[in-house]
């Protein structure tokens, strides 16, 4: 496995990614009991070569895959093939780090237009009239 490419100026050396093969969970017959095809990926954010800004964004993210000690832990067992699970785990790590790099545009506050406000008031008045017609009639 070569270095993991994240962005044009960011990559992770393969030594920083710890991949361990474990047995898969769930149904699957005898194959599950004898083959370690699931992959545990561990990546230490603090010890990584990522830029400090990216590390802080990852650590501040509210994600159950990131522990309080700053470890990213991913378990991948989608495929019966250990090789495919390795590739999927590395792709999941890559996507997680890339999601932090996306700069979101600030939301522009908007107000409803005059026509929309008038339409809303008109609907409220009609609804109120329907409710008054339901009241008991006095003799």
Automatic annotation (TrEMBL):
GO biological process: rescue of stalled ribosome
Top EC class, one word: hydrolase
Record carries keyword Hydrolase: yes
GO molecular function terms attached to this record: peptidyl-tRNA hydrolase activity; ribosome binding; translation release factor activity
Pfam families: RF-1
E.C. designation(s): 3.1.1.29
Domain Prokaryotic-type class I peptide chain release factors: 23-39
Keyword line: Hydrolase
InterPro entries linked to this entry: Pep_chain_release_fac_I (IPR000352), Pep_chain_release_fac_I_sf (IPR045853)
UniProt key word Hydrolase: yes
Signal sequence region: none
SUPFAM superfamilies per UniProt: Release factor
Coiled coil: none
Family: Belongs to the prokaryotic/mitochondrial release factor family.
Name of the protein described by the UniProt record: Aminoacyl-tRNA hydrolase
Name of the gene: arfB
């Amino acid at each position: 496995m070569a270095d993991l490419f994240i962005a044009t100026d960011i990559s992770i050396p393969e030594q920083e990614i710890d991949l361990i093969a474990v047995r898969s969970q769930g149904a699957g017959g005898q194959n599950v009991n004898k083959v370690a095809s699931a992959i545990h990926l561990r990546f230490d954010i603090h010890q990584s070569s990522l830029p400090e800004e990216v590390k802080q964004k990852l650590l501040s993210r509210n994600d159950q895959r990131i522990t309080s000690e700053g470890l990213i832990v991913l378990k991948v067992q989608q495929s019966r093939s250990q090789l495919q699970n390795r590739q999927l785990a590395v792709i999941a790590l890559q996507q997680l780090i890339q999601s932090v790099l996306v700069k979101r545009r600030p939301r522009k506050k908007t107000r409803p237009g005059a026509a929309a406000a008038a339409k809303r008031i008109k609907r409220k008045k009609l609804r109120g009239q329907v409710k008054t017609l339901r009241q008991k009639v006095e003799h």
